[in-house]
C-alpha cells in the first residue's frame, strides 16, 4: 500500500484554522527554520481513505480471537470509551485548580482505593504509564526504602528465568544487579535455589503469580518469607492478575509492592502498542516514597493533591495516563465486588477448557490445572515434521486468528503461550481448537505447506533479518 | 453487574463438566486456603445505565473553561475532526503491539509514517515509535548518551520542572549525575554551561522553547557540548518546531519532546506522547519499538518491528531501556494531525499562537503586568502581577477563563491559535479592572 507521502500532491491540503485576527508577529530571522518541513500535502478524502485502508490491515480485538498469552487481550467495553471521550474529562487542563477538577480527582482517588482493595495494598500511584514503567517505579520504592534505612549493601534483585524481559531490564534501570534463578521442573520457584541466593545483599525479588507458565506457585508464602527473612522486599508483577483478582491478593501473599497493567486486567484497549497504564501499589511503610502526586480526601469530602513526603520524584509528567485510569475505573464499577472474582474464574475456566481441547494433539509444557493461560511446547512436532512454533503461529493467521505469544517464556522450547480471556465464548474456544487441530493434521501431512504460511494475509512473511541488517526507518523519496 | 463474560450458565457448566469439575472454585485448588479472600470490600457492580449516570455526575464536578491561557507543559491546540475520527477506529484502538507483521501492516505503516514525520520535524535521521511522554523522552535521551567514562548530564534549569524531576529520577536510578545549569535573563546561562563541561560530561540537555516560554539559540549549547566531546539533546515544542530552527540545523545529536500538542486533548495530563529522534549513528541507543521497511517473501514492501536486539524481550538486563508498551495510538494521532495540518497548517498554528502571545503580552504590559525577561518568546511568557494573583485567577474563573499559571516569580501566560482576539480582549478587560 502507498505511504501517505506517496499520495502527496503539491498544492493539496485542508482548511482547518481561521485567519489570524491579531497583528502577525515576526521573530528574528536567526531563530527561524531554514530547511523545509516535509509533510505530505493531502486532502481530507486522502487522509480518511488512507487510514481506513490501514485499519483494514490491522487486527483488533473485534477482528477475531486474540489469545496472545501474557497480554490479556479481553474485550474493551464501549461504555468505558464513551465516558473517556466526554469533554468534561478530555478538556481538563492538568494544572487547572483542584476545585475545578473534583470529578477527575474523585476518579483518581476512588480508582486508587479500589486497586488497594483488589491487591491488598495501602496506597497507589497512578503516574506510571505502562507495566514496565510501573516496575521501574516499584523498584525505586524498594531502593528508597533500603537507602532510607542506611542499608546500602543491598544491590541485587532476584528474577526467575521465566520472568518477562521487562523485569531484569527494569531492575538494571533502577541501578540493580540482576540475579537470575532457574525455575524448578514444575515451572515454579525453586525454593532451594532461592534460599541459596538470598543474603544481606538482596534488595528484593520480582515475581508474577500465577507465573508466566500459567501456574499459581503454591509455595508463595514460603517464597515471600524467604526473601523477607533475608531483609529483602517482594515485588509483584501484576501482568497475570486477571487469573486471581478477587480470589487472592498480592498483599496477602506477602508482597510489598505491586504494579498492575490496567490495559490488561482492567480491560482498557492497547492502542496498537499503547497507551497503557501501570499504577503501582505498596504497603504503608513505602507510601512516603511514592512518585508524583496522590489524591487525598479532605474532611469536607472534597479531594486534593498531596505530595508524598520522601517521594522518589517523578517518573513522568502530571498524574499518569488519566483517561486510561478513568476507563479502568468504569470497568471496576461495572464488575464490582462479585464481578471481579467472577471474571477471574471465567478467564481460568476458558483457559482450562481450551487446554483440555488442545491436549489431544499438542503437548503441554506443564501438567495440571492452569490459571488464565497455558504454554504448549511444540518440540515433538518440530522434531517429527520440522514444523516450528512459528510455522503454526503463521498458519493460524490464515484462520483469521491472532496467534498466541511465541517463544515465551524462554524456559520452554518451541513455546506457544495461550491466554483466551473470559470474554470469549465456549463456541469461539471450540472453533480455535478446531483450527489448531486442522493445522496439526497439516503438519503431519504437508509440513512444507505450513512453512510457507500465511497465504491469505496482506503480506507474506517479511524478511526481518534484512530489516535489521539494512535499516530503513523512514521514507526517503526517490530523487 | 456487567462482566462481559459471554458464556451462559449452561455453557459454563458444560465446560466444567468436560474438565471433570462441578464448580469453578475447584480451579483454584493450588491456592492456599488461608490466603483466599471471601469477598472484596467494594460496591457491587452496576448496570451500564447506572455507570453512564454516575459518569455524568462526575463530569458535572469538572469545569470546562471557555478560554484557556495556561500551558506549562499541556497545550490547548485545535484538533481537526479527521484526527478524532481516525484515532477512534477500533482496529487501531484495540490492537496489541504489532508482533505479527502479516496482519499488522496498517499499524506498522502508520508508525513508519510517524517516524518519518518526526524526522522531518526534528531534522534528524531516525525516530523511535514513541515513549510515554515528553518528560520520560528526555530521561531516556539522557540515558542513551551515557558512555563508560561519561556519566554526567548537564541539564538546563529552565526546562519544565516535571521534565527535570523525571530526568533526575531516572539518572539517580541508573547512576548518572545531573548538574543543573542556571538561567540568565530567561535563557540557559551558556557561560555557566561551558564551564561545567568536562570530559565526564555525557550530554547537555536544553530546551529550545523553555519553561518560561523564551526561545533559546541552541547553537551555543550544541557547539559547546560537542567541543567537550559530549552529546547535545534538544527538547523541542513540536508546534514551534514548524517555524523555529530544527534540531538538525543546530546539529543536535538527539531531539525529544512532548507530542501532546500534535492533536491530543489536554485530558488532565494523559495519555500524551513522548517523541524521540536521533542521528543515525545513535539508532542502537534508542529505547523501545522502531519500525523498519523490508520485503516479504513475494518481494513486496513490508514493515516490521526491527533492531529488536536493543529491547528488553531479547536483551533483558542489558537492554537499552525496559520500555515495552508505548503510546502507539498517540503516535498515530500525531501522524494524522501532521498530515491534516500539513506544512502550512503547522506554520499557521505556530504563528497564530506566537502572534496571540505577543498581542497579549503587549497589552498586559500596559496594564502593569510587566514581562520579567526580555528574550524572544514563543507562545508563553512570564509577567509580574500587580494585583493578588489568586484573586485575579478567581475573577477570571468566574468568567469561564483559566488564567495563566501563578508561579513564585509571576504569572506564566500561554496562548494558542484557540485563543481568539475576542477572548484575549475579554481577559484584558478583567485584568484591567482588577488593577483599578
Question: What key attributes describe this structure?
Answer:
heterodimer, A: 479 residues, alpha/beta, Aspartate Aminotransferase, domain 2, Aspartate Aminotransferase, domain 1, 3 domains, seven-stranded mixed beta sheet, four-stranded antiparallel beta sheet, 13 strands, B: 436 residues, 2 domains, 13 helices, 16 strands, 37% helix, globular
Characterise the protein shown here.
The complex is a heterodimer of chains A (479) and B (436). Chain A has 479 residues and is an alpha/beta fold. Chain A contains 15 helices and 13 strands. In chain A, β2, α6 and β3 (177-181) form a beta-alpha-beta unit. In chain A, α2 runs antiparallel to α10, α5 (131-148) packs across α6 and α10 (322-358) crosses α13. The longest helix of chain A is centred in the C-terminal third of the chain and has 37 residues, at 322-358. Chain A is globular and about 75 Å long. The two termini of chain A are 20 Å apart. In chain B, 37% of the residues lie in helices and 15% in strands. In chain B, β11 (291-295) and β12 form a beta hairpin. The longest helix of chain B is centred in the C-terminal third of the chain and has 39 residues, at 328-366. Chain B starts with 8 loop residues before the first helix and ends with a helix.
